[in-house]
Design brief:
alpha/beta, Dna Topoisomerase Vi A Subunit, Chain: A, domain 2, six-stranded mixed β-sheet, 20 helices, 46% helix, elongated
Length: 406
């Protein structure tokens, strides 16, 4: 149940009022819906008489009385009565609140100057200036934790695991779950803010279409699992201690962890003439070792640490080395190829990703129906060297599940 003052405030509060553009009068009629909200006609009459006697409101809120003062036909009030109503209820004026929220975002924007995030804040400030406000936005602006997450990501000096990122950021914060239980600081980011942050990070230049949530976070320095890089073939890397590790004899594959990626870089590629990046784990595992070839498992989009390590390969590889990418025959496979070519190996070319390969895979029964949202994205994308594969996917309406081909 609402009080009459609360109901009047609800009639005034809206996009125009919050934007500072509202003026004039309201003349709502009293109907059954209003009576239900106020708890009946008697409650309305009692509150209306109290308002008329109130020196702050009398004359600004008036009523059409009839039937000897036992009923009210309509209520009349000006928009500019809102500040007085807010004082009576002991709440913040929605217009003042909107200006306060704009000031909060301007503060976060200042911290994000000269970064991609500045444009996001400009957009949010514009929406607030137009009077827009959702319950979700209001909650984020009041506690500020979403913007703390974004600011912290912007200022990461080195990659950090998700639980550690969360524990550091929310060390002194109490957040409760739906059932009132306290969420431990190390889980607050994952439980409450991760989805919201991911929606904003898609605006970042580090984002590539088709990235999973984990890959988006990794691209911005938040590790979601123990990060590793895998390859098969002759690669010598050097640690910052000066020590060199030769993986030539490890025919079945080498795996290095996040610390090694931090402190090591490729030094030599003994006898390597051809380098493959392989997206699909099953294909990578089944790939037999061959002299002169290096096979790198790319799992999807390489993380910043992996990109740093792998880019060094082009500096130590011999002239004439070929770079090939073997990816899934789907929308995601096209995006991953483009990412690797742009960020890792500029001379990368597709391998087994043409029309003949696609149609042979269909004959083997490896087709999976193309979802409509992917079709729309696939139609709009510039597939470049994989234009033929793009045409096949759209023509047949199927993507290839590589696991079925192993």
């Amino acid at each position: 149940m609402k009080t009459l003052i609360q109901w009047i405030m609800g009639q005034i509060d809206g996009k125009s009022y919050r934007a500072g553009k509202a003026s004039g009068y309201h003349h709502p009629k009293v109907d059954n819906m209003l009576l239900q909200q106020l708890g009946g006609r008697e409650n309305l009459i009692t509150q209306a008489k109290a308002i008329e006697k109130d020196p702050a409101l009398g004359g600004k809120v008036t009523f059409d009385w009839w039937k000897m003062g036992s009923e009210i036909k309509a209520i009349h009030f000006a928009v500019d009565v809102m500040p007085e109503l807010c004082k009576k209820e002991g709440v913040e004026d929605p217009r003042i609140r909107q200006l306060r929220y704009i000031e909060i975002l301007q503060g976060w924007k200042k911290r994000a100057e000269q970064t991609w995030l500045e444009e996001y804040y400009d957009e949010q400030i514009r929406r607030l200036a137009e009077g827009n406000l959702t319950q979700t936005a209001q909650g984020n602006l009041e506690d500020g934790h979403l913007y703390r997450c974004l600011d912290a990501i912007l200022r990461l000096e080195e990659p950090v695991e998700k639980p550690i990122f969360s524990a550091r950021l929310f060390r002194d914060v109490t957040v409760r779950g739906k059932n009132g239980e306290r969420i431990t600081p190390s889980k607050i980011f994952r439980s409450v803010y991760e989805t919201k942050v991911l929606g904003i990070l898609t605006r970042s230049p580090a984002y590539a279409e088709g990235m999973s949530g984990d890959e988006v976070l990794e691209a911005h320095g938040i590790l979601t699992y123990a990060q590793t890089l895998e390859w098969k073939g002759s690669l010598v890397y050097q640690l910052n201690t000066g020590e060199e590790i030769d993986t030539s004899g490890n025919r079945y594959g080498t795996i290095i962890n996040a610390q090694t990626l931090d402190h090591g870089l490729p030094k030599r590629l003994p006898g390597i003439k051809k380098i493959f990046t392989i997206e699909n784990k099953a294909n990578y595992e089944k790939q037999k070792f061959r002299e002169g070839e290096l096979y790198i498992y790319c799992h999807g989009f390489f993380s910043p640490k992996e990109v740093r390590f792998l880019k060094k390969i082009t500096e130590v590889a011999k002239e004439g080395t070929r770079y090939c990418h073997w990816g899934d025959l789907d929308y995601g496979g096209i995006r991953i190829f483009q990412f690797n070519k742009k960020h890792v190996f500029p001379e990368l070319v597709p391998y087994k990703m043409g029309r003949d390969d696609y149609e042979a895979a269909l004959d083997a029964g490896a087709g999976v129906e193309l979802e409509e949202y992917k079709r729309e994205k696939c139609e709009k994308m510039d597939a470049g060297e994989l234009e033929e594969l793009q045409a096949c996917i759209l023509e047949y309406g199927l993507e290839i599940e590589q696991e079925l081909l192993v």
